[in-house]
Each structure stands twice: as C-alpha cells, then as structure tokens.
UniProtKB/TrEMBL annotation:
PANTHER family with a match to the protein in the record: 3-KETOSTEROID-DELTA-1-DEHYDROGENASE, KSDD-LIKE STEROID DEHYDROGENASE RV0785
FAD-dependent oxidoreductase 2 FAD-binding domain span: 6-532
Protein keywords: Flavoprotein, Oxidoreductase
GO molecular function: steroid dehydrogenase activity, acting on the CH-CH group of donors
Protein name: FAD-binding dehydrogenase
Any Pfam family the entry gives: FAD_binding_2
Record InterPro entries: FAD-dep_OxRdtase_2_FAD-bd, FAD/NAD-bd_sf, KsdD_DH, Succ_DH/fumarate_Rdtase_cat_sf
Source organism superkingdom: Bacteria
SUPFAM superfamilies (UniProt xref): FAD/NAD(P)-binding domain
C-alpha cells in the first residue's frame, strides 16, 4: 500500500514543529496536521513568556549563580515526588532532560539563533528543606523575543522544509481516528474543517466540510493537553487538591481540548498520571481578552501580602512565587476559590510581571529601549493597563476604602478592616527592625541577596501603610488553568506504550500530550521554565527516533 508521507505529525505547536524540523533534517517527508488555521501555528508556545530551564549557563555565571547538574537533579526529585509504578519512564525522562538542560540545550538553541535575556529569574523557590520542592538557585532564562522567539527557529526550519517539498502543512484537519493495517498504526483519519480567518487564539469554526484519510509509516502525536477544556480539567481533578473550582480562568485557548488524547487511547495508547496537573493561583481576568475566560498570570516578586478570602495571611512558606501547587491545595481547603494580594505602589512597580508574550511587548519586540524603560518610575504599561481597567484590581489611598471595595467586588463581605489593619501593622513593625521572625520578610531580604532580584524583581523592603509608598493596591487572584502533567506513556525514544507495556507500533508522542516525556516527566509538581523545554526536548527525541524508524 502506498504511503502519503514518511511521518504524520498531529499538532503544530512547539513540540510538533520541533519534531517536524528534525524529520526534515533527516530528509523525511512529513504531513503536519492541525485543526486550527495557519495563523495559530506555534500553538500555546506563542503566548508564553518564553522561560527556559537551564543549568550551569553563562547567564547564571555572570549573575554569580553557582549551579550544577547534581543540584538540579536534587531539586527535580524533591519537586516531582515520584512515587508510582507508572513513574518508571517519567523518572528516566526527567534524568535525561536535566542532563539536556545542563548540557547541549543552550548551545543547540543558540545555533538556531535563539538568544536569552541576561537576567536569570527565580521562580518556584520552594521554601522547604534542601531536598524538598523548588529551585535552589535561579534557573528561569527568558527568551529574547518571549514565546514567539522560541517558536521562530522551528517554524523557520519547517517552512524551509515545505519549500523543499518535504513538509505538507495541512491546517483545519481535525483527527478523529488512528487505525492499523498490517499490525502498525499507520492511518490517520478525520474531518476537514471549514476555512477560518479567526485571529490567533480566538475560537474557530468546527463546521466540517469533508473528511480525510492519510497513511504514513509513523505517527507523532503532539496535540497538547486539556487546559482549555474545563469539563475535562474538573473530571481529572485530583482528590488531594480538594473539590474542583466552580470558576476557572483559562490560561490557554479553547482549542487545547484534549480530544486527541482520547483518540490515541481508543487506538491502544496508555494514558497515565491524568490526575497530575499544573494550574496557577495568581490568575487575573484579562481586561482585553483574546479567548473565552482569558486569564493572565501574575509572576510576582516576594513582597506582596497574600491573604485568603477572609483576610488571613497564607501560611508559611506559601509566599508569592514559592510553591504554586502547595498554595492551590491550601486555597481549596479554605472553602473559597479566590485569594488577595495586598501591596503598595512601590511593590507593583518593581515586582509585577505579567506572564505572556502579549503582556511583555518590550521583550517580545526585542526592544532594548523599551526594556530599559522598565527602570523608570511608575508601573510598566501592561501592568498599569490592568490597574486602570482590570476587574480584579483595586487602588485606594486609605485602607478603609480599600477594604470596602474588596468586599464590594466579591459580595462576600469577608474582610474585616480592623483585623486586616492589625495584620499589616504587625508586618510593618517587623520591616522596621533588621531582626525579624516573619519568614516572608526574611525571604524577601534573602531574595535581594541575589543581584538579579535586587536589580529588577524585588522592591526595597518598606512599610505597606507608609503613605510615601502608596497608594495601596488589592488584587483578587483566581485559579487559572495551564498544563497537564500526565499524558501518553512513552519510552526514551518517544514510542507510545500500550496497556501491556509494549510499544504501540508506529505511534510516537511528544510535548504536553506525552506529559512532556514519558507520560509525566514533572511528577506532581513542576520547576518553572520546563514546559517549553519539555516540548523542545521530547519533540527533538520523537522526530529523530521516527526518522530512524521509517524506511
């Protein structure tokens, strides 16, 4: 029987582009399918902040950061908490990925033209002991150009492959079936959707105008996760995180629906760790949304006072930027689904970074002048826009007015001004003394011991109720969907495994669809900057392995 291509790649996000680019380098013919129109090429990665996990990089050394593969592996294990029989392949993938991040990852990306912002960020600090969750040192490397800057080298390689006749880009093709002939999964079928001029990220039509059936020697599934499908998120919500939230914001477009994972399962693939997922607790409603329920995550510095819905401080070490899922677990035990940041104008000017390419036009546009403009007084433009227009932001000079509006915004009337003033005043007394028992103040002083945080990420410690630091600001924080941590189980060659542990002939998987490798390379928790890197690494492995497997 004739084949339409050597390999069919399903999903034109970062993992799919990477796999396709590697297949082109090997001289293989590829059909790249995606249900969205061409303007959405690059998938979720386009919208990202472009953070990459690197170990022992020149950027770290220039910032006086001492890192090593051994320290990174210690942090990964303490964060992942691998404890299941199904963690065999995820753990092996994790070890391979840490080696990649400490080895050729940076040079490989640099050869393709990718460049990095010089200041290394410190996300997911942990706050427990040395073998617990979190990054021991800063490892969050921001791509110059943010998400689009990560996508560009791989999109360029794929389009060059198309110009050479090696890549057939087929958009508006929704896969609904994977079937076998002669024992191997080699047939991909589905619906051809109506052409769409929907802008990137916006909902596109699901009207079918025909069907298709294609055959290849290998199929690579790179269709992403479930974050845009809130019903599926709730269905897989783990008991350890409590009752699923009634209100969820979406950190990804609606087409991240997880439907192809079900198609792969129907073909015999094994899905593991489906209850492991990564959602953010610092979500704010986008005042200028692109997709339905569009949320933006605040990447906070450590100074904001974090309160639950009743006005009580979150317990140690649930400070801003320290333990995302630990904070989520605590929130879901409070009986309320939202929390608050209370902070000052001085803090928001230096410590609020909004995640995403569209919220960082200076870095996305590679404008040195605009980046230097962040040092000027005042909040960055995108942050100021949320202060002016965002539904979750309250700005007031005096605490009574701030509390009144906090209660009006939620309608719950849970914040008591007297109690909140007592909490803030107690915190402020600790600021005035170089000795303190307040661990958050210890943490922010410790953060300023790192040059990168002192320069651009952590405000000088000050009293929140000092009028010179005002006005006061309250931000309601919502739960924001983002990533699936489980996925299709794969071996170290990205070959998908069946329920009996044997390979599913002809099928590979990469990116979020494969839990970024193995079916859950992160275990229960993630170290920031590892999602894009996981797409790159697993996509590269899948492309190279499939290229070797086909005749």
């Amino acid at each position: 029987m004739a084949y339409d291509a050597d390999v069919i790649v399903i999903g034109a996000g970062l993992a799919g582009l990477t796999a396709t680019a590697e297949l082109v380098d090997a001289g293989r013919k590829v059909i790249l399918l995606d249900q969205e129109p061409e303007q959405s090429l690059g998938g979720q990665a386009h919208w990202s902040f472009g953070g990459l996990f690197l170990v022992g990089s020149p950027e770290q050394r220039r910032m006086r950061i001492r890192d090593s593969r051994e320290l990174a592996w210690q942090d990964w294990l303490g964060t992942a908490g691998f404890d299941r029989d199904e963690d065999h392949w995820p753990r092996r993938w994790a070890e391979a990925y840490v080696g990649f991040a400490a080895g050729e990852k940076r040079s490989w990306l640099r050869q393709q033209g990718l460049r990095l912002f010089p200041v290394v960020g410190w996300a997911e600090r942990g706050g427990y002991d040395a073998t617990g969750h979190g990054n021991s040192v800063p490892r969050f490397h921001i791509t110059w150009g943010t998400g689009p800057g990560v996508v560009e080298p791989f999109e360029r390689r794929v389009r060059e492959g198309a110009a050479r006749g090696l890549v057939d880009l087929r958009f508006r093709h929704r896969v609904t079936g994977l079937t076998r002939s002669a024992g191997s999964v080699d047939t991909v079928s589905g619906d051809v959707l109506a052409p769409s001029d929907a802008e990137r990220g916006t909902a596109s039509s699901r009207e079918s105008v025909g069907t298709f059936e294609l055959r290849a020697q290998a199929v690579i599934v790179t269709s992403g996760g479930i974050g845009g499908n809130h019903d599926l998120v709730r269905a897989n919500w783990p008991e350890r995180l409590g009752t699923p939230p009634k209100k969820l914001l979406s950190g990804v477009p609606a087409h991240v629906d997880g439907e192809l994972l079900g198609v792969a399962e129907a073909a015999g693939a094994r899905m593991i760790n489906r209850d492991r997922m990564w959602h953010y607790t610092e979500g704010i409603e986008n005042w200028n949304p692109i997709w339905s329920r569009h949320g933006i995550r605040i990447l906070p510095g450590p100074s904001s006072l974090w309160l639950d819905a009743t006005g009580k401080r979150l317990p140690v070490p649930l400070f801003p930027g320290f333990d995302t899922l630990g904070t989520l677990e605590h929130i879901m035990r409070t009986g309320h689904e939202y929390t608050w940041f209370v902070l000052s104008q001085k803090i928001i000017e230096k410590e609020f970074t909004l995640s995403g390419s569209e919220q960082n036009p200076d870095l996305t546009g590679k404008s040195v002048r605009q980046v230097l403009g962040r040092a000027r007084a005042g909040a960055p433009g995108p942050v100021q826009a949320f202060m002016d227009h965002g539904a979750d932001f309250i700005v007031e000079r005096e605490l009574p007015a701030l509390v009144r509006r906090m209660n009006d915004l939620t309608g719950d009337k849970l914040i008591d001004e007297t109690e909140l003033r007592r909490e803030i005043a107690a915190r402020d007394r600790e600021i005035d003394n170089k000795y303190t028992k307040d661990l958050q103040i210890m943490a922010l002083r410790g953060a300023r011991g790192y040059l990168g945080d002192k320069l651009v990420r952590v405000a000088t410690p000050h009293r929140l109720l000092d009028p010179k630091s005002g006005p006061l600001i309250a931000v309601r924080l919502n739960i924001l969907t983002r990533k699936s941590l489980g996925g299709l189980e794969t071996d170290l060659s990205s070959r998908v495994l069946a329920a009996d542990g044997e390979t599913l002939p002809g099928v590979y998987a990469a990116g979020e669809a494969a839990g970024f490798g193995g079916g859950g390379v992160h275990g229960y928790r993630s170290l920031e900057g590892t999602f894009l890197g996981g797409c790159l690494f697993s996509g590269r492995v899948a492309g190279r392995a499939a290229a070797q497997a086909v005749d």
